[in-house]
Amino acid sequence: MSRLGPAAGVVLALAAALPDGRAAAQDEDGPLPSVQQTWSQWYSIRGLLQSDDGYLWASTNDGLARFDGVRFETLRLPAGQGRADVVAMALAPDGTLVAALADGRLLRASGSTLSLLAGGARVIERPIRALTVDARQRIWFGGASGLCFVESAAPGAASASCVLTRSVRVLATTPDGRVWAGTEQGLFRQSGASFERVGAGHRVTALTRDPAGGLWALSRQPEPVFDRVAPEGAPAQVTMPAGESPGGDFAVGADGALWVAVRMAVLRLHDGRADRVPLAFSAQGVLVDREGGLWVSTFPGVLARLGQPQARVIALDEGRGAGAALSVLATAASGRPPTSRWSASAARRSSGWARRSCRG
Predict the structure, then answer these.
(1) Which residues make beta-bridge pairs with 101?
(2) Which ranges of the chain would DSSP assign to H, the alpha helix?
(3) Which of 27, 207, 243, 260 is the most buried (most CB within 10 A)?
């Protein structure tokens, strides 16, 4: 099966080069080597995730987009079951992808099929913000109503059990099977049947796992601070540069560097240094894949994979704006503002659509 390719390879090589090797993307200053591919659909991307089988997943307002290293496939609910407006997703310990919808329903992705859980009923009335699955396969979800869970294997409609009344912003599960909840009143960790506060009561806005299984939390103290909160005995702390404010998610690379989505850029924080990668739009989501490539999602509906020496760009817009998406990362690789007027239709007219699949 096709998987995300190594950083040295091309993940989705759109023919930015014609058969004779000439660049198809041209502007007043010449070719834009940072642009290798596009794929268009007009989606709002809520989150990014890489599953155990190598697929990259993007949760959107119209289903789950799955990338196999060659192409994206959009998965939607069967006819008659409504729209899959996905607001959160998570991997279960068995590798199953579970997602929460804006209307309070839960679903599971199995192969290329989405199926509703809990008998298709809403598990909670108020909107869900975050989702995770614990070692017992219980699905935890949080939002303004607090923190609740349902048994994923329960047949038919399942009633939710709620254990925390604080407004939950983010959730995560650590390798030891414990659930962590980031709230407006601080960070909480599962302890038996209850939850205990960890650290001070600062507002927690993001949680992410590093490649070693450690858990990092972004809190406002009142300035943004990143803390490695698990496992115990291996703490670390990174502060944001003055004047910068996280705009969404963050990710941790194998080298320990933190990649942070900010306004019009992505920041790399490592060894006391902050490197800024400028973008044409504000970054929202970030993901470091298993090959070390950095994926960035922006609005409107653009996914890009940053790698050396070139970047890969995918526009999720169904052909109605890929021209802008093509130039999103021009500044990331070339250091100059994007000015390309090359459009998706021009790409289709060229005969050089080349795809290379990197197989595991």
Answers:
(1) 86
(2) 322-326, 330-334, 344-349
(3) 260
